Amino acid sequence: MRRSRASPDCHPSSYPQTLGSGHVLKMTSERSDTADTATLAVPNEPKAIDDAQARLVASLERFEYPKASLFAIRLSLHEAMSNAFLHGHRNLPGVPVSLEFEVDPDHVVITVQDQGEGFDPASVPDPTLDENIERGCGRGLLLIRAYMTSAEYNRKGNSLRMTYARPPRAR
Amino acid sequence: MPSPDSRIRVKRLDSVTQVEFVDRNILDEANIQMIGDEIAALVDAVPSPKLVISFANVEHLSSAALGTLITINNRIRGRSGQLRLSHIDPQIYEVFAITRLNKLFQIHETTDEAVKSFS
Prior knowledge:
- The complex is a heterodimer of chains A (about 170) and B (about 120).
- Chain A has about 170 residues and is an alpha+beta fold.
- In chain A, about 25% of the residues lie in helices and about 25% in strands.
- Chain A has a six-stranded antiparallel sheet with strand order 1-2-3-4-6-5, with helices on one face.
- Chain B has a single domain, classed as STAS domain (Transcription Regulator spoIIAA), CATH 3.30.750.
- Chain B contains five helices and seven strands; from the N terminus they run E-E-E-H-E-E-H-E-H-H-E-H.
- In chain B, the strands form two sheets. Chain B has a five-stranded mixed sheet.
């Protein structure tokens, strides 16, 4: 049975980050003239998370994505990774989250997968409704859906695939 | 005396407390928790607190930071105080608009305007 992540303690007072080497484990990485791809294992450590984000941003910059795209994609990646660690790995603090991305001149595809039990995204209350507006949580997925072109969980609810289509270039 | 590890800069002008962030990115959960604790201490230090939080240096902001702002707002209201936000650049403002929190918070262009708005 899939559980709900919409618990009131979505931002627990003791965030279970560990202080380790801060290294991202690079599983695979390819760079061609037309695309960058990478598969990374990211431990729940601030340095490692920053490093993973920096790798994706470097690929976006390589293909000269505009600033607004960088903002949108970086925020979405941060929210997806936060959800994976905070909820998916709530009871798996030492386990890394898997991050895969592919960047080409027109599209970005990012998959963040945790090893948790999964959840039902429909169970997250709409944080924009008046009755929920003062809830402290539930906005990460809303932001991802607003900024990315698509965002879909797998059936189990432990893997989020996000896509972003580059906005038309100014002539 | 502020702690050397403090993630905020604080200025007091008459009855108003002005807060600015040290970091450009308000993303990291542990960092956000520290910011929330520091601002909570400022709120609890005076009766009916009047607080302006400036986002002048902020380039990135996560949903966890929004959650902490809501907690701070509730704490201030619980002490019959008032909160204003200022200097939010258009990209960050969009995050407030998407989440509809631009309706919950009183947002002003500048800190001066925010200070003048207190009743």
